[in-house]
Amino acid sequence: MQLKAVFWDLDGTLIDSEPLWHDGELEIAAANGGHWTEELGWECSGTPVPDVARRMIEHGCTLSVEEIDKQLKAYVFEHEKMHMPWIDGVLDTLRSLKEAGIPTMLVSTSPRPIVENVLAAAPGLFSGYVCGDDDAKHKPSPEPYLLAASKLGLAPEDMASCAVFEDTPVGLAAGAASGATVIAQTCTIRTDTSNGPQFTSLDGYAGVDAAAIDAIVRKRLAASAAKA
């Protein structure tokens, strides 16, 4: 295989957790004088929680950024501990990669407890992670993906042979800036990402195994070589 590694965003890509974040936002806003809607929540998908908190304050929430940040992360963490909302088929994809010897990394702006809870729910399927608490700029910067690659001993010039799964415009931009072969997952996101910087898009994980991801990377490498 030419595929060297696969990097995974979390919310909306591995797990269908965006609704949990939005439910938490709605609950916090309603309890603290704010006006918030599901549509506003989706507009903020993929952005760091403090940025979401600032938007919530602009819409009347009386809590501080720090208080919203703490309460929202706690809401999602507790609900994911009760039930991890894996996207259909993604665990089979992860198992196929493990069987093929392809390392996988979780790359998320979520805090360490949330990310480690996800890894605990999929024992042995991830090689490691980069989270929002690590010393790297947040997406859309490519730094989280480049840091994840370095943890696997991969250099920036190896990124084209790596796949990144993302769903939001912010995440797609981060993956593309890292140089990776970016695959947009569209099965949960409500935002139109068809004009994004990804190499290709998928709607779900049916039939997406290690060989299928390797074929996408090979096609991207061949296209790049033809342009050179």
Automatic annotation (TrEMBL):
Check the record and name the InterPro entries matching this protein.
Answer: HAD-like_sf, HAD-SF_hydro_IA, HAD_sf, PGP-like_dom2
Task: Tell me which Gene3D superfamilies the record gives.
Answer: HAD superfamily/HAD-like (3.40.50.1000), Putative phosphatase, domain 2 (1.10.150.240)
In the record, which residues are listed under signal peptide? none
Q: Which NCBIfam families match?
A: HAD-SF-IA-v3
Its name, as the record gives it, is: Haloacid dehalogenase
